[in-house]
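Lay summary. Proteins are chains of building blocks that fold into shapes, and those shapes determine what they do. In this project we predict the shape from the chain. Here is one chain we studied, written as its sequence of building blocks.
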Amino acid sequence: MENMSAAKRLLRSKLFSLAAVTAVVVLIFYLIRRSYLGVDNIRGILNSMSLSGTIGVGMACLLIGGGVDLAAGAEGCFGGVMVALLISKAGAPWPVALVAVILIGAAIGAFNAFLINVLNFMGFIATIGVSSMLQGIINIITKARNISISDRGFWSIGTVAVANLFTLPFMIMAALVVVYGIILSRTRFGRTVYMCGGNRRAARLSGLNPKKISTILYINCGALASLGGAILAARMHSGSPKAVLGSELDAITAAVLGGVSFMGGAGNMGGCFIGLLLLCSFNNGLISVKLASYWTIVAQGVLLIAALIADYFNVRARARELKAAGA
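And here is the predicted shape, written in a compact code that computers can read:
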């Protein structure tokens, strides 16, 4: 009986439903184009997951904690350009440049947190402003051109692969998913993130400091976004002023598809990973069937809206459950 009830809970779980939808999407594209499940195409999907996923880990934590960072894409671009400048122009060893770029991203995240938690700006407005500022600075520095990187040691970050399939960027992203999943589910800090995102006032009355938690999450998001941009620069052998722009929307879409509430307080890294797999498989499938690029953009927008609608109903359902429990 216990096994039966556990099986029923699994079948009704959001993760199972999401995995089933992902399997159906993959099957449809495979039937349309058999090369869809070829090694080269699978490696392409995993590579696309690496960028959105690295940024998405930080974004998911931030969303669970009740925040949002619409500057993450610009932070990734800034990280990619800065790592290129440090290696190619300043002559810094690539490990030093990579650490410096992560610290720069953390500093940008701290600036976001200052605007939001100290000056009390709205998260949307503050991070959109920071995104615009960063894009302007990037274009001034680069004159809107890519910065080439000639360090082959740095290239290896983007090219090394296990079994010619699992690239190092993907494995870094997967490791981040596991580590942050453990932090969120098994640590005191993880529980405080959920509490602050679910009910900021109740968290404050419980003796927590929501602004401190929020600051940590913004710093973390900025650091991971910058890391994601640097890893993409290793894959491209150059720092691009535009390559990472828009990836924050992919990260948000994947997180919300995976069950992270846009209102905060709910979600987990396992769901985010499956949501990311669904999103990247879907995007890759649209490209593989040679759908016009503008229709691809429309389809991605529809997917994001569908995810937000699902999140809206999930939030209402949780509210009803809490009300019934209180009664």
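What the prediction tells us: The two ends are 31 Å apart (CA to CA).
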